[in-house]
Design a protein that fits this description.
about 675 residues, alpha+beta, GIY-YIG endonuclease, Nucleotidyltransferase, domain 5, 5 domains, 24 helices, about 45% helix, about 15% strand, globular
Length: about 675
Amino acid sequence: MAGNRSESNNLQAGRPGVNMPVAPFSTRAAAAHVREEGAGHAPSLVEQVGKVPTDPGCYLWKDAEGGVIYVGKAKNLRARLRQYVTLTDDRAKIPLMMQLVASFDYIVVGTEHEALVLERELIAQYHPYFNVDYKDDKSYPYIAITKGDVFPAIKYTREKHRPDTRYFGPYTDSRAARETIDTLRKVCPVCTASCAEWKRVRRLLEKHPDEADVIELICASQGRPCFDYHVGRGPGVCAGMIGREEYAKNVKRVERFLSGQRRELVDELKSDMAAAAADLDFERAGRIKRRLSVIDGLDDRQQVVFPTSVDLDLVGFYREETIAGACVFVVREGRVQRTCEFILDKGFDVDEVELVSGFVKRYYDETADIPAEVNVAVDIPDAEVMGEWLTAKRGRVCRLHRPQRGEKRRLLEMAQKNARHALMRYMMRTGYSDDRTNQALLQLESALALDAPPMRIECFDISTLHGAFTVASMVVFTNGKPDKSQYRRFKIRAELDEANDFVSMSEVLGRRYAPERMADERFGSRPDLLVVDGGRPQLTAAIRQLEELGLDIPVCGLAKADEEVFVPWDDTPIVLPSGSASLYLIKQVRDESHRFAITFHRELRGKAMTVSILDEVAGVGPTRKKAIMRHFGSMKRLREASAEEIASVKGVPADVARAIYDSLRALDAERPAPDGETAS
């Protein structure tokens, strides 16, 4: 095991770091941290990594309290760990994580496949903050077969997996799981683990494990048939109505059914029905026929997807900044048997490949229902190793595949849509958006050194085309949500020969925060935070203008390139952690300001171009142009009008109307914005 910079060398269970502080971070600070010496001149993290072996294994990054905050696997431990301490791993979360790392441990294994298996066990044990996990961390229902019993029973359960029990699922719909059990017991009668008579027989067999034959005789002579036996769902173990071999045959059929191998089960039942009919046992043949009818009815309710019999899972994802949804389409024998939906605790703060890979490992670690093929929308680097792991669990070949076209691609896109809807339902049901907003305001208060959470945020953006049609937008977020009644837009009055965000920003702030506007109720109250879209130049312009006005308003700038936040008191920009609620909110404010500005810019440019077009049409003078504009009321309605509608304007001949119509159509064909349009 590896070196430590903390006194404790023990791997602590639990879930440390769930409330991991989300603070500004920088690559520079992370680089300095991994090179500093520990207490008592202990080696730095960089020096410790240099002593790590080059064998395959798993590594555990730990914080100052000894809590595990990230678990990973590697084919070469030293090379992989070196990527972290040298910050050559380009994932957005790495600088923040490495600032929190105080020590690490590692476990050497024989192969990369063994490392994959161990990684899943360690993640399940520690639930590290920086690993992908289920958002709600709730238990999901499974259908289980108690394989360790002489007469295995079926049950609906949410328990942790036991070694003597086989589990099928998970199911995100508990009703669907229970209905599946009911259907199964109609087709292949087996005991349920909740049956009191089955429990009695189980206790007898556990007390006398070597006397199973005697116990069966006792049950046959003295046993009381349970209610399920009387209604055709129980095999009659409690009354000695079935032997171990025949019962084992039913259990095997149940497992095939749950594994999606229904065609094989149907063939067996048809063979049994034919044999019963040949023996003139028409009562038994009738029972089997009714079971086949149950299976046929179930298939009728399921959508046929593929013309051939295929077994595959399609895993779709939908991400937001801080959260993601996952949906698994379970296809067996060419039919969608069920869908499973999950909410994940990571969004854009982790790479898509890492998100998909982490979920696939977690999901198939907890289910025994593994298909021949797993379809995902990205290429996973260790797909081959994961395929070997899934093949070993399944007992037959299983591979990971990224479909590019065809029916598999269509169904994968459908799974992605369902993942989005699952995420939206979760956010609406739990009020997640409100919680995220409250968290974001508190994080901004801390990161930007504000006196209080910024309940009113104003953001400004400039949009121009080489200095022409220059406009500015002001958007307002109140309590973390858009307040569109407070939105304002400005035409820049300064004469500009080229784009000049410095001058434009100074003008719009001078107009917005002029004493008369600050006293105007229509402009609302003083903001708690002023955000300008841009970097250091835009921020400098804003600060100078506020100083001229004698106003002390907290202000920051948000650059588009690296999502860096510029503040007046520090030359080094603040980097809010990717995936944090604060970054999500401030980006939302900036993007809304940009949208509002460029919409106004295009509106003005389109109006000017339309008016100029009317001036160029032969036969259209000031009087006719005025009459046309009075009739339609707006440029948008004029562009949408037909030649006949334009000709209906008093004083506009048909040939002039046709010329206007043709000119407007030519203008619409050229409407894509030319190069040079900017929005700062």
